[in-house]
Amino acid sequence: MLHHLRYGAWLLVSLCVSTTLFAQSLRVLPTDSLIRVDGNLTESVWQRAEVAGNFIQNFPNDTMPALNRTDVRMTYDNGHLYVAVVCFDKNPEKRFIASSLRRDWEWDQNDNFTVYLDPFGDRTNGFTFNVTPLGVEREGQMFNGERVAPEWDNKWRSAVKTFPDRWQAELMIPLKSIRYRKDPDWFLMNFARHDLKNNQRTSWRRVPIAYRISALAFADTVRFATPLPNAGPNISLIPYVSGRLDDYRGEGGSRRLAGGIGFDAKIAITPSLNLDLTVNPDFSQVEVDQQVTNLERFEIFFPERRQFFLENNDLFANLGFEQSRPFFSRRIGIGRDTNTGVIVQNPILYGARLSGKIDKNWRIGLLNTQTARQNSRGITPQNYTVGIVQRQVFTRSNVVGFFVNRDGEGASPTASRYTRVAGAEFNLLTDDNRWSGKVWGHKAFRSDLEGKPLESAAHGLFLNYTSRNLTLEWAHEYIGAHYNINDVGFVARRGQWGFFPQAQYTFYPENNRWLVSHGPQLETTLYRDLTGKLLDRELFYGYNFALKNTMEFGGGYYNLFTYLFFPFDPTNLGGEKLPASTNYRQRGGFWFINSDRRKLLTLQAEGWTGGFFNGRNTNAQAVLNYRFQPYGSFGISAEHNNIRLPEPYNSARLWLIGPRLDLTFSRKLFWTTFVQFNNQTNNTLLNTRLQWRYAPVSDLFVVYQENYFPSSFASKNRALVIKLSYWLNV
Known about the structure:
Shape: globular
Largest sheet: 26 strands, antiparallel
Oligomer: single chain
Structural class: mainly beta
Distance between the termini: 71 Å
């Protein structure tokens, strides 16, 4: 009898577990009829499809069901994956939050529905497709288990319909637009809804509040009744023509008129491996880097924005740490004018880039580009080659080996003809997302570095632990004194050890009507030279609050120590410099506040005041923005530094002021204009850009840029660019 009871109990438990596991997957049937992508959901396949529902909150309370119900259905045919969603709305009197009609909007600033898709099931890489209640689309590539690169573009379609009690959408995703293994009968997926007007983030499968809702660690299985067909040949050509007028007469130069023609190509070598080609690329439509107030002693990092370098960019751009990258693609296409000593653009003649997955466990990245010769400027051609192999180990971790090479034909006798960097990395990511990290070692090779193995090497370690309440982080790096790779990579400091521990504790009070979370945090930065001498120490103690109305604020105390190992003017205005080999201790306070981002008028502000080298500084930064949704926004950003140093050193009031206007006349026509006044660089920048997306991923750009002297508004230089591109599927 006891045996039978045990067997019955075991059978009951097994049945419950099996039922639970079955419930945690979604079965998808193919469609037997044509689907009109119109948002009406009238096709019979939607009535028969299984429903992914019962969304649960990720924020502000990850144990509660969603306020508003969301139902998701899926189907597929020989060429497309279809997703239908119904987003119910219990409070339609509140308007949806929409930043604009521009594609590739900011996720956290819009009501939206999101698909997270992991075709290989590695819970590390994937794709995301998003749509707002106004039918505005966004897509991106996923990497590092939860990060999204929204710069990635591809062709797909959607349609949205709104009703008094809901909004609903259909998404048609071409199988050619995503990379997946052969004959798959399942994907890992999650669906998320950002119900911003109610300040809720919800998902089909629960994602704990400590993690991003995009975390693929919590994705679930979506099973297809029959294997998805192979996508077949996928070749896209993107030719362009452009014209450019440059006027440098305000700087004593001349006016130049030039035209350009070239093309990009995307070729799917396999469904998961893509070859990007470019011939005579033109990046003039990319928005210019905005000016910053520079109070630093080291080079400032600006991210890559050029489309050719973006697909699978995590393979190339995430090597090392942010301040010590062995490869930095923005080095490609610049050169130093030997007549003036100024860094200028140098045309890229061609480029090839192979990247993607070979199978579930292997990813590769290969890049080769060639830049031009400019005899009049003394700029020699350069060839850049990068090779990367990534192998998944354990469940979500991976090991990486890479090689970077720059070969400069006709380089000057005083410069190294080549720069090479090789290295290996291990990236850690556990199944439950609690632990993440990396350890790496890199070595530089140049003709002037022979016999200096350790001095031309670099190493780093990063380890992060995240639980519901506690986040702990440790990082350190060693950069050799002769790790000279800034012609291919980005290294802010050399000949130093850096240590970067952090800790944060977050409280989530229960049954509080206005408070979501609060808690303290500690951030530390420590640099020592290779003999152990302290160079820099930064300690930040803060306390932060997050409210249920989306408002955030906090403040804290800083304690700094700085040893100057070279003379430095803290204002960067070229005046009297503080002497080398001097110490400075600085203390003060900092604060920040972000207003309710659901309101039409929003404010983000922060600042600090206290010691600054041998004097004081009061810094304040603010961005005031008014959203006239859905047609755009007008904002003004400002930064002020009131630097007071004793004689004979510079004191200065530095201003950086920039109004910005974003207009979206429709989902196809956008106009952006911003102006920046910067008295630190004695420059006023005007940039205005009109974009007409006349066909999917096909654009006409008209860009005008001018730099002025702030005092007289006399022109320094100006440029007008017209560029037309077309995306053609072969």
